[in-house]
Amino acid sequence: MGGEAAVEARGLSKRFGGETAVHSVDLEVAAGEIFGFLGPNGAGKTTTIRMLLGLIRPTTGTASIFGKDIGREFKAAIRHVGAFVEGPAFYPFLSGRRNLRLFGTLSGGASEDRIAEVLEWTGLTAPADKRVSGYSQGMRQRLGIAMALLDEPRLLVLDEPTNGLDPQGTREIRELMVRIRAEENTAILVSSHLLGEMERVCDRVAVIARGRILQQGTLDDIIGDASERVELGVSAEATAQATAFLRERFATEATSTRAGMIEFSRGTLDLGVVNRALIESGLDVHQLTPRRRSLEQAFVTLTGEHSSIR
Ligand SMILES: Nc1ncnc2c1ncn2[C@@H]1O[C@H](COP(=O)(O)OP(=O)(O)OP(=O)(O)O)[C@@H](O)[C@H]1O
Ligand SMILES: [Mg+2]
User: In this predicted model, what pLDDT tens digit does every residue of 210-224 receive, in sequence order?
Assistant: First the structure.
């Protein structure tokens, strides 16, 4: 990783009246990484993000951005941050480009080149000069992200940027995050409940539920390495024989899922050894594939079955 952390939060808590929405959250986002903040509705994602950005004051704990404390050095801390939190407001009667110009003046003026660049990145070049009132929800989301990018942030914070988008729009946002990080080495903190999407782009994730961080780390840390299940493909006629062989020789609970396909738990088995043994016993191996759990499966295990996450 190297360098100071983009975000460092220690013991962040937030109480609203008698309710504790966020309990002692520790978070660390490295410079230049895409960090997924994942949790079901009401888990405390937005509340945490608001504290990180200095929009609300934590009940306890501290947060800093590139080493600057958000409470004590607010201006220095947010200087390098672009954020998209819960549906940004635009002037509907102005075009996308004019909205960006106006927003740019708040931070001392954005160049026309930069405006054109963020419009291009977010796929808004063609409608840039149309009124925002005519934009679809996806276009508004992308304009919100363009706004967050305007000032060349070193940290981009996106709270549920794909809310309300269709699969195509969701994919565009994912590709946009990858591109932003690649071209400007921007760290991205993105909250979402779309685990499949996050699994594809995040370097590390934190899972939060009921205000507490359940786990934080690389996807391998959270999902487990490729050791969970193994699929073995053999010819249809050899299915029963191969299943019996695996059970006897390797003491696995191998089961056939369909003709020619068998699944077993890898445990500590060396797949090279398994492969050789199958072939030596006269079985043709068509495929031998470790299947990693999906982030979704890992998530359900972590948060319990009643989580409302998709
Ligand atoms: N201003 C507030 N006053 C009182 N309670 C609040 C306030 N803001 C949030 N909460 C409560 O804090 C908890 C966490 O809410 P938060 O919005 O942070 O969750 P979230 O993870 O962002 O959920 P979602 O996925 O629905 O956006 C919820 O129980 C919510 O009702
Ligand atoms: Mg939220």
Answer: 999 998 998 878 877
* Interval between CA 42 and ligand 1 midpoint (Å): 5
DSSP string, the chain: --SS-SEEEEEEEEEETTEEEEEEEEEEE-TT-EEEEE--TTSSHHHHHHHHTTSS--SEEEEEETTEETTTTHHHHHTTEEEE-SS----TTSBHHHHHHHHHHHTT---HHHHHHHHHHTT-TTTTTSBGGG--HHHHHHHHHHHHHTT--SEEEEESTTTT--HHHHHHHHHHHHHHHHHH--EEEEEES-HHHHHHH-SEEEEEETTEEEEEEEHHHHH--TTSEEEEE--GGGHHHHHHHHHHHH----EEEETTEEEEE-TT--HHHHHHHHHHTTPPPSEEEEEPPPHHHHHHHHH-TT----
Q: Whose CA is nearest to atom 16 of ligand 1?
A: 44
Check if 7-223 and 229-291 are the same fold: no
For 7-223, CATH number out of 1.10.1740.10, 3.40.50.2300, 3.40.50.300, 1.10.287.110 equals 3.40.50.300
Tens-digit pLDDT profile for residues 6-50:
999 999 999 999 999 999 999 999 999 999 999 988 999 999 999
Residue with the nearest Cα to atom 2 of ligand 1?
16
Answer CATH for 229-291 from 1.10.390, 3.30.1140, 3.40.50, 3.30.70: 3.30.70
Which residues sit with their C-beta closer than 6 Å to ligand 1? 16, 21, 39, 41-47, 193
* Least confidently predicted of 132-136, 239-243, 253-257: 253-257
Distance 196 CA to ligand 2 centre (A): 18
- What pTM was computed for the model? 0.81
**Site to substitute for ligand 1 among 13, 14, 16, most atoms within 8 A of C-beta:** 16
